[in-house]
Amino acid sequence: MINYKNLIKEAKYAMQFSYSPYSNFKVGACVLTKSNKTYIGANIENASYGATICAERVAIDNAIMNNDKEIICIAIMSSGNDFTFPCGICRQVMAEFSNNIEIVVAKNEEDYKIYNIQELLTHSFLSKDIK
Q: Which string of b and e fits 42-59 if b means at least 16 CB within 10 Å?
């Protein structure tokens, strides 16, 4: 069973590493893999906005760089006052590594919602579509 509150706590911890001087909108994410390891990420902004990278992709890239590619869940939390959902690019990256990943969007450790990637990204473009 997934300890969602622990993942949210780790996502909140990751927010402190956010580099967000333009938006002042801090986002933290925590990925859980099948090996029961967690990897964190924070958003990193850039003056050239296209070079900005979201917390979700930083956390996923962290897992991939550690050769831990079987992602089962990701928790996302921000400095905003509402649920922060992953952007379209992040959703596509999530789908690349799991067609069944759970996505936890949290206001705090007690107030959160859980979605499946299929709910948030229908008809995703996957490796099977290239063949």
A: bbbbeeeeeeebbbbbbb
Number of domain units in the chain: 1
Q: How many angstroms separate the CA atoms of 26 and 63, rounded? A: 21
Residue carrying structure tokens 């928790």: 75
The parent domain of residue 28 ranges over 4-129
Q: Global pTM? A: 0.94
Let me know if 107 is exposed, middle or buried by CB neighbors in 10 A (0-12, 13-18, 19+).
middle
Q: At what angle do helices 55-65 and 4-14 cross, to 10 degrees?
A: 110
CATH number for the domain including 123?
A: 3.40.140.10
* CA 13/CA 55 separation, integer angstroms: 12
Percentage, residues of the chain above pLDDT 90:
87
* Averaged pLDDT for residues 1-10: 96
**Active site amino acids:** 56
How far is residue 108's CA from residue 26's CA, in Å, rounded to a whole number? 14
Q: Which of 80, 87, 82 is nearest to 103 (CA)?
A: 87
